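Email to the structure team, subject: histidine kinase model.

Hi all, the expression group asked for a predicted structure before they design truncation constructs. Nothing fancy, just the tokens so they can compare against earlier work. One-line instruction: predict histidine kinase, return tokens.
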Amino acid sequence: MRRRPFPRRLSFRGLGTRLVVGFLLVSALSALTTAALTFRQARSAILDRAQDSAVHDLRTRVGALAPDLPARPAEADLRALTLQLDRSAGARDWRTAAVYRDGRLITAGPPAPPLPAELPAAASSATTALAQRFHHDDLPWLAVALPVTSADRPSEPSGLVVYAAFSLAAEQQDVASLVAAARAGALPVVLAAAVPALLAARRVLRPVRQLRSAAENMAEGALDTRIHVTGGDELADLGRTFNTMAATLQADAQTLRDMETKARRFAADVSHELRTPLAAMTAVTGVLDEDAASGRLAPETSEALTLVADETRKLAHMVEDLMEISRFDAGAARLHPDDIDIGELLRKTLALRHWQDRVDTDVPERVPRARLDPRRVDVILANLIGNALRHGGPAARVRVRVRPGADALTLTVADDGPGIPAEVLPHVFDRFTKGDAARTRSEGSGLGLAIAAENARLHGGTLTAANAPEGGAVFTLTLPQVRDRSSRTP
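Reply from the structure team: attached below.
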């Protein structure tokens, strides 16, 4: 049994590509989600640490300087306080300001960025440090408001609030470094995920490819196809189901073949056994038919003998057709080709059956001789013309036209009858098919057109049927014009 090779490449629309792309998307989404969560946590940690450190340092500085302030500090006292705080900022480089109760905001160093409006409003009544991040000149800043409480009453605000603002540019650079690291780390993760994605897709698709290849082999007739199944997952169950289905189909097909072989053998045997007694019956009925025609018998006897003779001839013809069909089925039909003149063969066919007066022929004067089997071509012509005469009506005219071509000979048989019913047309060459299903008995056996089609195929030609637009059936026979054709089997 021929095995189809499994395709190794991924199709852009195939399941393998979708599995790999899905795997990579999940990997990329996981990497990006992890990077985003890590970035968020790290960013919050960096900013919170900077804020806590700034609040702690400011509280320490203010705690060391506030006891030296008077109970009601003046502007000069507040300016001196902010100057000392600015000088003690160190690397933090903050800008401080102070305000007492509802007074003016006092600064001693370079002007600080404008504080957020919400911070002073909230700090006036607060007792703990407040912090708020804001942007100034497209740079991040942190503003801290530290209410100063008295030592004897720490829960009550003293009215003095110290503000400090410092840049978060260094922290922003740290956050930007985290973003760059996250971006740089996501791409290798996605690329590294491509390898297990390809391996996983290959592993998943291997049984699917095996199933496809096995199904194609079965479609070509290899019903003994089976696939190797391993594992216990759903694909393995599908493979076992396929094997069970294949075994059932193989058994059923073998049973049908055995039954068909027996039926063909039975038909051939019955036809062969009936041939000898039918030959004797035909000879006897021929003699009696002559007596009936001479008028020496009673009218009733003469009519009965005529009926018996007609039915015997029909039965003999049917037996001959069955034997011919059985030879086609057994592959025993052979061609005996000869160089023939199709026009001369057509005239002999019509003369032998006395159809000259009912058939119009259109044959060119010079038709190239073709190497065909004259007996089988005669059978084809007799079946086509006889069928046209039977179904065309008592006064039917049948037209036969011959047209030679470059490498094929075309012969059409047309009648002026009602044509072939649409539901019968696709099955007109099937065995035991009759054009008029309402007629349970007719001169035809239902095998003539099937035998004609088999003889056409035996020659390497074709036989088709259609209805003419103006009415009537048209059969077209195409036979190859080969000068040197040897005998062959179908």
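The CA atoms of residues 125 and 157 lie 7 Å apart. Confidence is low (pLDDT under 50) at residues 1-10, 437-442, 484-490. Ping us if the truncation boundaries need rechecking.
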